[in-house]
């Protein structure tokens, strides 16, 4: 095999390996991370079972506990998110009232840029927690 063909193939293989490794790294880096919610109950149960070796009775009790507690955490998270958004909008309105028209224009641009960054970040890291559903939790 000619040296230039051999070198070209090695370069191509290295490039493809780099592209594959980058794709894998990006998937792990930008995987959505959110606190566990009710939709994650089955995953939590499986993880506890694999790490702790739960008995059938323990699985049933853990399933019951997850069904009771995780929806409470989801409700609290949604309530807190709503309150935070309301507080942020109130603060923005109060700030606008203190500014002159030129400053309001610049402030609105700043807010729009901030909201765009936040929206972009949501797209990168995925949507919030999945809808609440306890159906997949079987206990076995």
Descriptive report:
The chain is mainly alpha-helical and 140 residues long. The chain has 2 domains: 1-31; 36-140, no CATH class. Helix content is 76%, strand content 0%. It has 4 helices and no strands. It has helices spanning 3-29, 41-52, 56-98, 101-125. The longest helix has 43 residues, at 56-98. Mean pLDDT is 81; it is low at 127-140.
Primary descriptors:
mainly alpha; 2 domains; flat; 140 residues; 76% helix
Low-confidence residue ranges: 127-140
Task: Count every beta strand, where a strand is a DSSP E run of 2 or more residues.
Answer: 0
Largest sheet: none
Order of helices and strands: HHHH
Strand content: under 5%
Q: What is the CA–CA distance across the termini?
A: 58 Å
- Kindly name the structural category: mainly alpha
The amount of helix comes to: over 70%
What is the domain tally? 2
Q: What is the number of helical segments per DSSP (H or I, 4+ residues)?
A: 4
Cα-atom radius of gyration = 25 Å
How would you describe the shape?
Answer: flat
Short characterization:
This protein is mainly alpha-helical.
Secondary structure: elements and pairs:
Elements: H1 3-29, H2 41-52, H3 56-98, H4 101-125
């Amino acid at each position: 095999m000619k040296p230039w063909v051999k070198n070209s193939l090695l370069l191509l293989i290295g490039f493809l390996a780099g592209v594959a490794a980058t794709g894998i790294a990006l998937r792990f880096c930008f995987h959505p991370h959110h606190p566990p919610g009710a939709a994650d109950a089955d995953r939590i149960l499986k993880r506890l079972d694999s790490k702790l070796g739960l008995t059938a009775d323990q699985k049933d009790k853990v399933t019951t506990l997850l069904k009771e507690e995780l929806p409470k955490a989801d409700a609290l998270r949604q309530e807190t998110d709503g309150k935070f958004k309301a507080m942020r909008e109130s603060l923005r309105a109060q700030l606008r009232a203190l500014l002159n028209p030129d400053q309001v224009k610049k402030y609105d641009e700043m807010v729009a840029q901030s909201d765009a960054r936040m929206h972009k970040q949501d797209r990168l890291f995925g949507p919030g927690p999945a809808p609440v559903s306890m159906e997949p939790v079987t206990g076995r």
